[in-house]
Design a protein that fits this description.
5-stranded antiparallel β-sheet, 49% strand, 282 residues, mainly beta, 4-stranded antiparallel β-sheet, 10% helix, Ganglioside M2 Activator Protein, Chain: A
């Protein structure tokens, strides 16, 4: 869509005009999915808004039924009844503008950025790209400075080393966890509302999470490690998240996750892992 341009319609409005080139038609309708991510402008940048976060949508169903954005888009294309999935070829878009009469009247903020992400719903493969632990926290819960990335094969790395638990004086009901996911964009990482978990009970997450914790528990050299963790030193062997549990609709490729543990509202640990999400080869 690099040939699409803004064109002035009148004194106050602009439209989109140009050429949309469809480069692939090999993705079946059942696997063609979409995410819509809205961000409001704050200060010197945009911040994701939970008001407009739609994930794992069936793209062609949206193409057939949406009346706010897609309906006017279909009318602006120089092909009547363009099917979905689209056939290969260039298509002219003439004077496209969303139908403002269909927008809800209560939208907060003035300026928005809306990302439309279309993807092939293949399973995701996870590659660990980096890991760091923040050691400048007063009265830390644990010490992870001995953990290192170790090459597992030509393409993948695992986490190996020693985790030292320094404290066991925080009651289970006061141990809280925040997980903050950030997607990599051109100028750095930006936190995404798709992965934002705040102030949940750490031990409940330790036992009930289905994505990261099962494989982490299995990587310890200690069977049935409980929570809160007892003081001591534990080996972690070949930890990598279980790719079978990763949602197939994760947008983007590079992500950063911060795991922050709190004693109620006092931070006692922060660890960061960098991941690359890739389509899994069949």
């Amino acid at each position: 869509m690099k040939n699409l341009k803004l064109t002035k319609l009148n004194k106050t409005h602009w439209t989109i005009n140009g050429v949309m080139s469809i480069l692939r038609d090999d993705i079946p309708r059942s696997r063609l999915k979409a995410s819509i991510r809205g961000a409001t402008k704050w200060g010197n940048g945009y911040q994701d808004s939970s008001l407009l976060q739609m994930n794992n949508l069936k793209f062609c169903d949206m193409w057939d039924t949406d009346t706010v954005f897609i309906g006017p888009l279909k009318k602006s294309i120089n092909i009547t009844n363009l099917p979905c999935p689209y056939p290969l070829g260039p298509f002219a878009i003439i004077n496209y503008i969303p139908d403002t009469s269909k927008l809800p009247p209560f939208i907060p903020a003035k300026e928005w950025r809306i990302d439309y992400i279309v993807y092939d719903e293949d399973k995701k493969n996870i590659k660990i790209k980096g890991f760091e632990s923040f050691d400048n926290i007063e009265n830390r819960l644990h010490d992870l400075k001995e953990l290192k990335l170790t090459k597992a094969n030509k393409t993948h790395w695992t986490i190996n080393g020693v985790m030292t638990i320094l404290r066991d004086d925080i009651p289970r009901e006061r141990m809280m966890l925040s997980i903050r996911g950030a997607q990599k964009w051109g100028n750095g990482y930006q936190e995404s509302s798709l992965f934002q978990i705040n102030n949940i009970n750490l031990c409940n997450y330790w036992y009930n999470d289905k994505i990261f914790m099962p494989s982490l528990r299995k990587s310890f050299n200690y069977t049935n490690l409980g929570c809160p963790y007892p003081v001591g030193t534990y080996a972690i062997v070949n930890y990598v998240p279980d790719t079978r549990t990763v949602p197939p609709y994760v947008p983007g490729k590079y992500w950063r996750f911060d795991y922050i543990i709190w004693d109620l509202d006092k931070k006692v640990s922060q660890d960061r892992i960098y991941l690359e999400f890739m389509p899994e080869k069949s």
